Structure prediction request, 68 residues.
Amino acid sequence: MKSKSLKQGTKIEMEHTKGNKFVEKKRSKSPKDMARKIAKDHVEEMGNSYYPELKRMEGRIKRKKVNK
Prediction:
């Protein structure tokens, strides 16, 4: 697994772990550890292009909203 994909994915997945009550109850893992695990699972399942494609898709959606 490429570390660039994992780093990018961890950063993106942090938005799902910050303030998440499930993550806060599960004290054995930090929010960053949980985000890294989620990112690793996504990259293993979908491939290294998962997060770059996700960013492009989000960008297209944002541009459509602005242009309405």
The chain has a mean pLDDT of 84. The chain has one domain: 3-67. The helical segments are 3-17, 21-25, 31-46, 50-67. The two ends are 39 Å apart (CA to CA).
